[in-house]
Design goal:
Keywords: Signal. InterPro entries: DUF922 (IPR010321). It holds the Pfam family DUF922. This is DUF922 domain-containing protein. The chain is α+β, with helices and mostly antiparallel strands. It has one domain. It is 52% helix and 17% strand. It is built from four helices and five strands. It has a three-stranded antiparallel β-sheet with strand order 1-4-3, with helices on one face. The longest helix has 27 residues.
Amino acid sequence: MGLIKKAHLILVLLATLTIPYVQCQEVVSWEPDFRFTWNDFKGDVPITSGAAATTASGITYRFSTYDENDELKVDYNVYAYFYPTKSWYKPKLCNEVTLLHEQLHFDITELYARKMRKQLAETKFTKNIKEEIKKIYKATIRQLNDFQNKYDSETNYSRNLPVQERWVKEIEAALKK
């Protein structure tokens, strides 16, 4: 077997072995009534991390297109997900305020999923739709990361209780809109 065929076989095997892992990864969709408990944080704590807890959340999307009366139409779904096996906490450093802080990270992710949905709904796409949606997604993720960092900075990772409470009220109000 030639070197190129061996490399191709290895790539196919890796892809085949990886797909079930990715598909089996535990995910929790954002729901208005879902609230974290510490049991939701199932990941291994990194030895070198100075953080008390980490919420792994993200936005994913799917879309399809069709023609209607010579106009390009788009069906899309945008989801905010929490990844329990990539989220963790240090019990000795955490309390209910920390848990609420982590919940708001997930809630913020949902707010940015909504922003992406709104932008997709308002965009007039061209035939280059795949790239246009990818650009919207990347911009949304950048904005989400900046906002998450601002949240952590202003609340001092939940330690500044008055500011943490202000953020709770603001995020809860934004989710009700």
